[in-house]
Amino acid sequence: MSLQSSTPEALRVVNLLQERNLLPPRPIPAPTPCLPQDLQKINCNPEVFRSTLTSIPQTQSLLNKAKMPLGLLLHPFKDLSQLPVVTSSTIVRCRSCRTYINPFVSFLDQRRWKCNLCYRVNDVPEEFMYNPVSRSYGEPHKRPEVQNATIEFIAPSEYMLRPPQPAVYLFVLDVSHNAVETGYLNVFCQSLLDNINALPGDSRTKVGFITFDSTIHFYNLQEGLSQPQMLIVSDIEDIFLPTPDSLLVNLNECKELVQDLLKSLPTLFEKTMETQSALGSALQAAFKLLSPTGGRMSVFQTQLPNLGVGALQSREDPNQRASAKDIQHLSPATDFYKKLALDCSGQQVAVDLFLLSSQYCDLASLGCISRYSAGSVYYYPSYHHQHNPAQVECFQKDLKRYITRKIGFEAVMRIRCTKGLSIHTFHGNFFVRSTDLLSLPNVNPDAGFAVQMSIEENLDDMQVVSFQAALLYTSSKGERRIRVHTLCLPVVNSLSDIFAGADVQAISGLLACMAVDRSVTASLSDARDAMTNAAIDSLTSYRQSVLTIQQPGLLAPACLRLFPLFILALLKQKSFRTGTSTRLDDRVFAMCQLKYQPLAYAMLMIHPSLYRIDDLTDEGALNISERTIPQPILLQLSVEKLSREAAFLMDAGTVMYLWIGRNCNPNFLSQVLGVPSYASVWALNPANTSSFMQNMIEDRTESALSYYEFLLHLQQQISK
Asked: Is the pLDDT of residue 207 over 50?
């Protein structure tokens, strides 16, 4: 079925060399799939679940011809303002493929429903005939499960392998001389003290602390002690765990002791001369301690581990940072951290790594501990409590969010799709337990995932296909819950319809994940070539197979007009750039983020949003809870857009920059920033202008093309 008549705008021909101001005035919404209105109205929110192609090709050969990647991007545990929750002793699922009943199944009659993934006809259980919302009987199609594409079930006992675990938090802290110098310990202890009552959990919540340098220190926090007791283990080769029950304690029963420890920790080590770091042994000890229950391990590290198991050597050559040749050492130096992460995963333990350092720490090796255990990595280069106040503030805000945000324990996620489609590669932090089951010892609301797909059998007689992600987890209150997201998309058989449904942001996000893998398994230059070729190939396919009238120029359909810009942005992004001095850990961290951030954040890291903010008006403003929120227009990332008379805000996802022009209106300076003159702006924070300028991706640099030059390069390749 051709949908062309209803989507002319997506296929409007754009000559990229002539239309230079392509950025829309507001952030781009996800394209709306061409579905009947009743289906689209209840489809899954694209912020939670979206596909690179909103019209699915009928065959793999058609997909190959379009030269665009097919995949899904997910943000499964996103904080949602509205989430229907269903408590029911029967969770209705397909008897054949185990799909959860959802808005896209069809009812043959009141007693039978047909699965939208495998087409099996199932019976409607008696209990499902009653609708708890309307309190009426005999209308199964009106139940919340069939009215909502995102829903959460409170699971009965058959969804538990063991009684739901309590919330367990273990903090593992580097207290070497280097760590004490940075001053991070004060900030950590103060943050945990401030937020300890907001730590997610219930009456069973447990906490524990381990500190380490060349030895490992445990803390007995058992009820009844007048103060915490420190136990030092100096045999790091074969760690003996003193009584585990006194080291992981019930937070509610021992809160005062925990607070005493947090108040005294920063001063405990302030005179230390210990320079060594036995991180590997500390992690092994922490793993032993958490193994019986599972839980979350939060590790704070400030240097390269240099003692005992998992010790590492510096692999960075500072002279090679800007070389245009290939970047070495993007893969781990040892499999110690990956192996330990897999052991952790098997015992439902996730490890989060906070790296606060001014020197090389080999994040390529250390990061494995989080990647395979479904943890997350936080990185603060050049962290110092006095010399780098911006990093300290960032660390404080991250910690507050980290300590208080929602968490799911002992989770698994499975993604199912309609018969004929198959999933072959996953991106994110997890361990793949079986072909389609992701093991997530912890799941958090800031984690994103992506999958690549192929079409194994022709989808000939299908109008639509569906995808379902089911996340089974234990809440911090000890409830077993299942969050289910279902997405429905049309099937098409013409290339023009495939192009019309292309989601340029999702495509760019998936290509970024694929390029990170390629950098590690092949080389950085391979990954860069693959991204450039993705733009060349898709625009060539469009030109040869979709355009009816050949015309000169670099032509793209309107829906892909930003594709070359996003590819250029990726080539200039910290992960993939060459010729600009980039620390190895900075590069590896940027790669970790691209693989792990939900699409909305990844896109801001790839192509930040730039706004002028000294002349805001009410035009197009939003009104949210009685407040007027101005909506300034998006500006191109070029120095041409800056002006000495103005002030600009750049949102780069995990960081925001404020750029103030030398002749900016003094009223703006006094009313908004609270400073009398431009000179005092520097006193606020003589910000890092160079990292702001490095985001000006449309401009030429010594080592990289301008956007216009890049377009000329693409045109040259396409017209070969």
From this structure: yes
pLDDT class of 614 with cuts at 50, 70, 90 = very high
Locate 521 and state its tokens.
């398994």
Q: How many helices (H) and strands (E) does the chain have?
A: 23, 32
The position carrying tokens 């036995």 is: 278
- Burial code (b: 16+ CB inside 10 Å, e: under 16) for 237-273 equals eebeeeeeebbbbbbeebeebbebbbeebbebbeeee
**pLDDT surpassing 60 at residue 687:** no
List of residues 6+ apart from 378 with CB closer than 8 A: 352, 353, 354, 355, 395, 398, 402
The pLDDT score that the predictor gives to residue 683 is: 63
658 phi and psi, to 5 degrees? -115, 120
DSSP-derived secondary structure for 542-582: IIIII-SS--SS-EEEGGGTTHHHHHHHHHHSTTT--SS--
Buried b (16+ CB within 10 A) or exposed e, 411-443: bbbbbbbbbbbebeebbbbbbeeeebebbbbbb
Q: What region, left, alpha or beta, does residue 138 occupy, with left being phi > 0 and alpha being psi -120 to 50 degrees?
A: left
Residue 686 has pLDDT above 80, yes or no: no
pTM above 0.85, yes or no: yes
Render pLDDT for 100-123 as a digit per residue (tens, 0 to 9): 999 999 999 999 999 999 999 999
Structure tokens at 530: 């693959």
Q: What is the pLDDT of residues 5-61, one digit of tens each?
A: 444 699 999 999 999 889 999 989 999 999 999 999 999 999 999 999 999 999 999
Task: Round to whole Å and give the CA distance between 198 and 453.
Answer: 40
Beta strand 656-660 with 647-651 is: antiparallel
CA distance 171 to 221: 14
d(CA 48, CA 469): 10
Number of residues assigned to the chain: 720
Q: What are phi and psi of 602, to 5 degrees?
A: -60, -40
Strand positions, DSSP E, 213-247 = 216-220, 229-233
* Residue 77, SS3 per DSSP: coil
Phi, psi of 310, deg, nearest 5? 75, 10
Q: Which class for 543: exposed (0-12), middle (13-18), buried (19 or more C-beta within 10 A)?
A: middle
Contact assessment for residue 380 and residue 394, using Cβ atoms and an 8 Å cutoff: yes
Please check whether residue 227 is in contact with residue 239, taking contact to mean a CB–CB distance below 8 angstroms: no
Vertex 593, ends 590 and 594: CA angle to 5°?
A: 90
| Among 57, 108, 203, 145, residue whose Cα is nearest residue 545 | 57
In the DSSP assignment, the letter for residue 641 is G
Among 211, 195, 382, 379, residue whose Cα is nearest residue 286: 211
